[in-house]
């Protein structure tokens, strides 16, 4: 089985600890007019409650067919409509400008290079209405956590090991059964540089989903930006 297939089957378990982001993104969706778009929608963990709370269709883009199939099943079971599209967020293009584009659960860290991220941010800015928002969250870079994880093997949700490549700021998740995925950690200034080159403005930078300000103890960046 590929990474995508194994990941999609076990994704509920991978993501079970992450719940506090849902009301945050639901709140942003309720405040916005116009189309709602989730980048890297996965199995719809966030998009389904967003669609339910707003009564609006959420466009969900993901490069994994296996994840989209899961999202489609879960959306049908929840009785909500998602407009699921297989594609790469780097190629984002919408028919109608969005009121809110969001990317939960650190998924932007799957983009390997500055050029990939800049392209994505520029596409997002071009796809937003004036005043429309782009929101995402990602780890704050922490060498100590990365160093602790390096070489660890974990049995659940599927057997895998973790590897830290210091020079590339990269964590690899290597499945015992084959298949791998990587996260390239990003600093605050890199995020701010991306916001700048894309012509967006930072509306808020939180350190948590409870909207507390970023502090030295924060381990997540929660960005809300505006076109
Ligand atoms: C951690 S999951 C996040 C899923 C969902 N947004 C959530 O919050 O639970 C990361 C997702 O990013 C998708 N992904 C990775 N790189 C991508 C890319 N370049 N374009 C679109 N989706 C991508 C993966 O297929 C996976 O479904």
List keywords for this structure.
binds S-adenosylmethionine; globular; seven-stranded mixed β-sheet; alpha/beta; 227 residues
Could you walk me through the main structural features you see in this protein, from its secondary elements to its overall organization?
The protein has 227 residues and is α/β, with parallel strands linked by helices. The protein has helices at residues 3-14, 21-31, 47-54, 65-78, 114-127, 143-149, 188-197; strands spanning 36-39, 58-62, 82-86, 98-103, 128-139, 153-154, 160-165, 170-175, 180-184, 201-206, 220-226. The strands form 2 sheets. A 7-stranded mixed sheet has the order 3-2-1-4-5-11-10, sandwiched between helices. Helix 5 packs across helix 7. It is globular and about 45 Å long. The structure holds S-adenosylmethionine (SAM).
Brief rundown of the structure:
The protein has 227 residues and is α/β, with parallel strands linked by helices.
Number of helices: 7
The overall pLDDT average reads 94
End-to-end distance: 41 Å
N-to-C order of helices and strands = HHEHEHEEHEHEEEEHEE
> Strand arrangement, largest sheet?
3-2-1-4-5-11-10
- How would you describe the shape? globular
| Rg value | 17 Å
Percentage of helical residues? 25-40%
